[in-house]
Amino acid sequence: MKIYINNIEYDANPDETIIQVADRNNIKIPRFCYHKHLSVVASCRMCLVEIEGVKFAQPACSTPIKEDMRISTKSRKTKEAQKSTMEFLLINHPLDCPICDQAGECELQDVSLKHGDDHSKYLEFKRVVVDKDISPLISTEMTRCIHCSRCVRFGEEVAGNKELGLINRGEFTEIRAFIEDGVSSELSGNMIDLCPVGALNNKLYSYKARTWDLKQHPIISPHDCIGSNIFYHVYNNEIVRAIPKENSDINQTWLSDRDRFGYQGIYSKDRCYVSKHRKNKTLERVDSQDIIKKVNNAIKSSLDKNTSSKIGSFISAQSTSEEMFLFQNLLRKLGIKNIDHRTNERDFDYQDTYPLMPSLGCNINDLSEYDNIILIGVNIKTEYPILTVRLNESVKQDTKIYSYHYFNMDEDFPVEKKFVMNNTDLLSLFQEHTLESCRNKKNLLVIGPNITYFSNQSVFLQALDKFAKNINSQIGYLTDFCNSTSGWILGNVPHRTIGGVKLDNPGLNATEMLENDLSTLIFYNLDPENDFHNSSALINSLQKSECNIFFTSYLTPIIEKYADYIVPISTYAESDGSFINIEGRFQSFSKVITPNSNVIDGWRALNELNILNNHQAYTIESIRSELSSTLSKIDFTSKILIDKKKYELEKSTKVHKNSLRHIYSTDQIVRRAKSLNETIQANNKSVYVSRDIFDDSENKKILKVVENNRVFKIDNFQIRDDLPSRTIVYSSSFNNKFTESKSTFVSLKK
User: Fold this and answer.
1) pLDDT at 170 over 80
2) Angstrom distances, CA of residue 51 to CA of 15, 42, 54, 67, 647
3) Looking at the domain 655-749, which fold is it?
């Protein structure tokens, strides 16, 4: 189909509108209400254009194209129509551009300059709208609002959570939160980007800098395995805000609030800026140039005194791929096989039959191609909010979604059917049950990280394998950290080296390392209080170890108490790095800010240890070259487990204790993001108990939970009638005291 814009011929598709053709051909048409990912309302009328043969100018956003249509975006009629619209929109808009955070990137400001006038025939007093505090993340100046309704449509159509709406009529029309508590969506920050006039603003960024003072740096999200693309804006070597970097294959034009505001954790008060060495039971400051040599001497001394099997090493799956490569490379060349990144797990019987690495098994863009998506042990809304957008799109294209979990949790997309059961009942279901509605269809079974916490994870994975085969489903995984895929591929496991090559004599897994009274423990980029399955087992191991080495960005109480060597390392934003997302997509980024002078780049610290041991010295480029070679040989779609061992179902009458992964406590950086931990989600730290547990208890105000011969008293709990029988669920929020194990069987003391 041919159309003409400003007398130039263009190709167009029959289902397109004028503005879509114009945008594709870089023809500028001003707009306020239109957005390519939102429905068309044509309310602002700013995109009026002249069409040959039509008496009045028409909105380009809602007018479908026709064969041989002739459109003018520069004619006198078009300019007059746009000028009149601009004059009308400015009737009530305040003249506060000098103090507005939107200044410099304000669509209204830009369009006013080009299409506005220096005077108006409307002389009435401007209206004033009283602002309300709707969120710890979003500040409001609703007097500036032009009622484009982008924020309203985003909540309803993209986020699946309609919290803002238009109330009243005429002069009294306002955009307000329906509920007085305000906006609680995990995607709420996108409303800031969508607002064209500065009515909704980034509360953290307010009055900190001007747009023209900022330096923009691309980076990858470190907070989940999706790998959202971000722009960080830096002022005076400080990150002051984050906005989405458009990537149609991953996050489109959206960001979760965790990705948008999580950087605040970099500036936490407990950042580690000083190298330390314990001498005479006291931590003493060490020059940052000497700490690496001291750590190397400590490792060598341990190797001289003991065998390599007495040294254990743990690395966070939030570390970059470069750090993971160098970590395992250094340790394996020293003969150390006890390496693991799976610190949150307890059961490792599955590892020999596990795929090379966890992956989604398809591209994020392809989710809508499945007839059925079955979610196992995951709450997308609170764990991977950016996937909410994709699953909403999938449902609109007739994909049906099923959910299996031990906790009844809401999603911001329609769920065909929910199955809520305790661990034992879920396991029985997977071993026997088949979803008849999924037979002979294209299915994707997605396993969430909550399953990995179970003490019988291997049994679950085998049962899920059987379940998947019964419905002819592909299996995909969502991991708890951003770079877990790298952890597997790059050999940060005790039984495989880089590329998945199996070891004949594997080392100890994370749990075994804590149970075997090792002489030396090495921790890289981990929060010992929160990043281990069992905090008590960790502390016991630290007490028995002769030497504890911590490479860390944060100084926590456990580190201060038990560390013999502390090496302050950079965060993801303070160093070059790469992450591999759950699709197998390798994404690199460069340093955004310069760290404190005493802080060492993580990969450089590991590289220096390599050099001190006469091993190969690496550069970022040479590491990435090796990574590319490894990745090119990997099939990211082979996901089905192979049965080698039969597990028996163990029925338990004990109470099931499960940890919910709290969206703002998933990693050490976001836990320290102050604004996120002021949200409604973060403030809910209750323990949930099933009705039958409460009914059986003698004391209705305090529950006594027995785990590993320790008694925990719970006085802040909520009774959930929708919780499966014999179940206790708690949120794994920061500094929660009820964290003996993330998932286990417990008993109740009368």
Assistant:
1) no
2) 18, 16, 6, 13, 71
3) Barwin-like endoglucanases (2.40.40)
- 2-89: CATH topology: Ubiquitin-like (UB roll) (3.10.20)
Relative orientation angle of helices 602-612 and 291-305, to the nearest 10 degrees: 50
Q: What is the DSSP-derived secondary structure letter of residue 615?
A: P
SS3 330: helix
Can you list the positions of beta strands (E) in 77-221?
138-140, 164-167, 174-177, 200-202, 215-220
Domain ranges of the chain: 2-89, 119-262, 295-305+315-334+498-575+587-631, 655-749
Distance set, CA 537 to CA 46, 154, 473, 512, 743 (Å): 64, 46, 38, 10, 14
CA pair distance 235, 207, nearest whole angstrom:
12
Comparing C-alpha atoms, which of 720, 674, 670 is closest to residue 695? 720
SS3 label, residue 402: strand
State which amino acid sits at residue 542.
L
Candidates 571, 574, 522, 576; CA nearest to 545 is: 522
Enter the DSSP assignment of 156. Answer: I
Summarize pLDDT for 393-429 with one digit per residue, the tens: 999 999 999 999 998 888 999 999 999 988 888 888 8
Measure Cα distances from 254 to 295, 379, 385, 431, 587 in Å.
43, 19, 10, 38, 18
Q: Which helix (H) or strand (E) holds 78?
A: helix 76-89
DSSP 8-state class, residue 595: P
Task: Check if the beta carbon of residue 598 is closer than 8 Å to that of residue 275.
Answer: yes
Beta strand extents in 76-145 (DSSP E only): 138-140
Bin 170: left if φ > 0, else alpha if -120 < ψ < 50, else beta: left
What torsion, rounded to 10 degrees, do the Cα atoms 64, 68, 74, 75 define? -110
Tokens 């487990």, residue located? 641
580 confidence band (pLDDT: 50, 70, 90): very high
Q: Render pLDDT for 367-384 as a digit per residue (tens, 0 to 9).
A: 999 999 999 999 999 999
Q: What is the pLDDT of residue 414?
A: 93
SS3 labels along 206-265: CCCCCHHHCEEEEEECCCCCCCCEEEEEEECCEEEEEEECCECCCCECCCCHHHHHHHHH
CATH number belonging to domain 119-262: 3.30.70.20
- Residues 603 and 608: their CA atoms lie apart, in Å, by 9
Task: Specify the CATH architecture of the domain 295-305+315-334+498-575+587-631.
Answer: 3-Layer(aba) Sandwich (3.40)
Which residues have C-beta within 8 Å of that of residue 8, sequence separation ≥ 6? none
Strand partners, 747: 706
Answer yes or no: are the C-beta atoms of 170 and 218 closer than 8 Å.
no
> SS3 for 508-547, per residue?
CCHHHHHHCCCCEEEEECCCCCCCCCCHHHHHHHHHHCCE
List of residues 6+ apart from 427 with CB closer than 8 A? 456, 459, 460, 463, 649
d(CA 473, CA 302): 49
The 10s digit of each residue's pLDDT in 667-720 is: 999 999 999 988 887 777 678 899 988 888 877 788 888 887 788 888 788 888
Which uninterrupted H or E stretch holds 612? helix 602-612
Of 487, 103, 88, 466, whose CA–CA distance to 319 is shortest? 487
- The 8-class DSSP code of residue 416 comes to S
3 state DSSP class of 269: coil
Judge contact between 376 and 404, C-beta under 8 A: yes
Closest CA to 522 of 269, 273, 323, 670: 323
Tell me the backbone φ, ψ of residue 635, rounded to 5 degrees.
Answer: -100, 115
Of residues 533, 536, 538, 571, the one with CA closest to residue 552: 571
Q: Are 273 and 291 in contact (CB under 8 A)?
A: no
